[in-house]
Amino acid sequence: MAQLLRIPYHGQLPNWFWQVPARVYQNQPSRPDENPAVTEQLFAHEAERNDIVLFGDADATLRLAGIFPENSSEAYFGFWETVNDASSNEAAFAALAEEARQRGYSRLVGPLNFSTYHAYRLRLGGVPSWGQFDREPVNPVYYPELLMGLGFQPVSTFESRLIRPETVLAVFADKDMLLRELGKIPYDFIPLTPDTWEQYEHAIYELVQAIFGANPAYRSVSFEQFRLLYNRRYAERLCPYTSVLFRDQANGQLAALSFCHPNFQALQLPANEQPVFERDFAKLPRKVLLAKTVGVHPDYRQRGLMSYMGAYGMVHFRERYEEVIFCLMRTGNYSLHFTDGLDYEVAQYALFGKEL
User: Fold this and answer.
1) Is residue 340 classed as helix, strand or coil in its secondary structure?
2) Are strands 107-110 and 74-82 parallel, antiparallel or unpaired?
3) Phi/psi of residue 106, each to 5°?
């Protein structure tokens, strides 16, 4: 085993940080979406409110970021990639755990890249039929086994559900009442196009913070950091027929959001080229809708808006798509109920933790 390196982050990521995933995923069917320029900017932003220590080796067999947030009893590990070597991971995680204990943390949680706003979780089990969708956690199957061998256990679980074509008619029959009632509720429906995204960008940012702010391990981000991932280029990939903002007709406040777009993975676009719905949708060999981010402002919950947003998406689903994946829903979350009772294929994920 190569000598373990410990490098406090001071503004630049070392070369081996990028070499590790290239090595790990060279023979894997899928690999995480990672943009080096965005990752460098993210580290620079987050270094303002976290101490960050990198662990790895010059042979590029492992990388691991220890993240030490202020005013928290939990330290995080993130940006973890590794070959299947238990001894090197045991050494790296032991060093990270000891450092966390010395700093006064009582728990270690991950993989979590600073916040649940960014990439986190591991995919459990084998590769599902869809392979990989945009920003889905993907990893070699040995990752969960390595973590559990080091004493980590799942602390939160999630799932994605693929609804097959033969089930879609049943979805419509089951939700027929919601479809009829859509036109009667006191909300404006604002389709999300690149232009409307720019028009409501700051309000969308505030709505995202309000909806997801209470989620476990979520940490608020600045508007500048929000725009690293969610901006006009992101809006260009959204399906304008199924992505929507609900606006309260009484006061003009945004009450709910639904971000949906096709699964563009089959196009195998170059890493530096972002998908564009208007340009790329017709090229897709199979039209699979991803229901990615759906949520309701806390002031508007318990009014059925989650189901109404699902119904809104279905109005246009039949004429444009063949399948739908409800993506990355937390176990026990209300959003799971929309597909309860249906036949579906499921992929599962977990966030892991360990007491120190």
Assistant:
1) coil
2) parallel
3) -110, -5
